[in-house]
Amino acid sequence: MTQKTFLTRLTDELRYSVDNLAETVGDLGTPTVRLGVTGLSRAGKTVFITALVHNLMHGGRLPMLEAAAQGRIAGARLEPQPDDAVPRFDVEGHVDTLVRERLWPQSTRQIAELRLTIEFESAHFLSRTLGRGRLNLDIVDYPGEWLLDLPLLTKDYRSFSAEALTRARDTTRATVAGPFLAELDGLDPQAEADETRARRLAGRFTDYLRACRADERAFSMLPPGRFLMPGDLEGSPALTFAPLDLDGTDAPASPGSLAAMMERRYEAYKKHVVRPFFRDHFARLDRQIVLVDALNALNAGPAAVADLETALTEILAAFRPGKVSRLFSILTRRIDRILFAATKADHLHRADHDRLEAILRRLVARAIDRAEYGGAEVDVLALAAIRATREATLTHDGEDVPAILGTPLPGERVNGDVYDGATEIALFPGDLPDDPDAVFSSDPGAGDGSGDGPGVRFVRFRPPALQKTAEGLTLSLPHIRLDRALHFLFGDHLA
Ligand code: GDP
Question: pTM to 2 decimals?
Answer without folding.
Answer: 0.89
